[in-house]
């Protein structure tokens, strides 16, 4: 992406001039220099390709500027600067991304010409993303949902999970997709609200459990023994026959109890749901693994851990995304791993997108990793190929 126009917002005149000179040396001819935040409101234009922002401005701080740019739906590349702690920069970056801004990177003062040049070079390899792209919204009837389940249009994709110590594939997380004949692939957040609204979550869960057990049973026939994690919400844990139903499915498809993980997604507190607690306890008694999803956010917390016999803790991907930028996050994940070890639980980290994150998670003691670094979620037809060709790059 070519950068033709840049805007610098910094209250230090010398640094402002320094950045302007560097930008011009890098071929950016049109550079706007501002030392007051309030001037940005008059100088901003959608035609600006790059904006550098000092977070600690004396009049209007940089975070408020981010809100302004977000509400203006700016598509400019954003570089955040600060002479304060790295954690402040990381937090501001999260704010910028939450507003849908294109964050190119951060600079801790003092910084070098090489650091600036590297950021600009990254921009040359990127394409601006459309700000706040509208997601398609659908409306479905109860009959639509039930018909899709009956016709097996609702399917599972599988994202690999890798043991970071042994470097082997241990299993897959099953992720639901609706392959609509007219609308194409519909993602869970676009149709699951209707599943809940029409109270057909039980029907969907039974279908998905059957699909998962059937597929992994077929893998066993090919000599492949892997585990599968299936997402279940608290509100789905109402049928006390679920443990027996799962065991029957497993026996039917020659699966061992440790090959099924029930992953409790963050949808409500266990307290006040005695049937849910009963079902989870009985699943555990039958040797089926229980995972608590998105640990560290919302209802997925220490309180949940104390209520049911979980065997696995899944770190929320927001922490994983933040790991390389925020030293506090490293401490949080390290403490989480220590806690899990004390409770004899495995730790899974999702959202791994690069080798550096993978390696640091391994150093912190995380057992299992998943994310786009290893693979995107795969249709059933792509699982065998992934297993046969997988290589853990050191």
TrEMBL record:
Which UniProt keywords are listed? Phosphoprotein
Q: Where in this protein does the record say 4-aspartylphosphate is found?
A: 54
| Coiled-coil regions listed | none
Residues covered by the Response regulatory domain = 5-124
Which Gene Ontology BP terms does the record give? phosphorelay signal transduction system
Pfam families membership:
EAL, Response_reg
Could you tell me which residue ranges the EAL domain spans? Answer: 138-391
Q: SUPFAM superfamilies attached here?
A: CheY-like (SSF52172), EAL domain-like (SSF141868)
Q: Does the keyword DNA-binding apply?
A: no
Which terms in the Gene Ontology molecular function aspect does this entry carry? cyclic-guanylate-specific phosphodiesterase activity
The keyword Transport appears for this protein = no
User: Highest taxon of the source?
Assistant: Bacteria
**Designated name of the protein:** EAL domain-containing protein
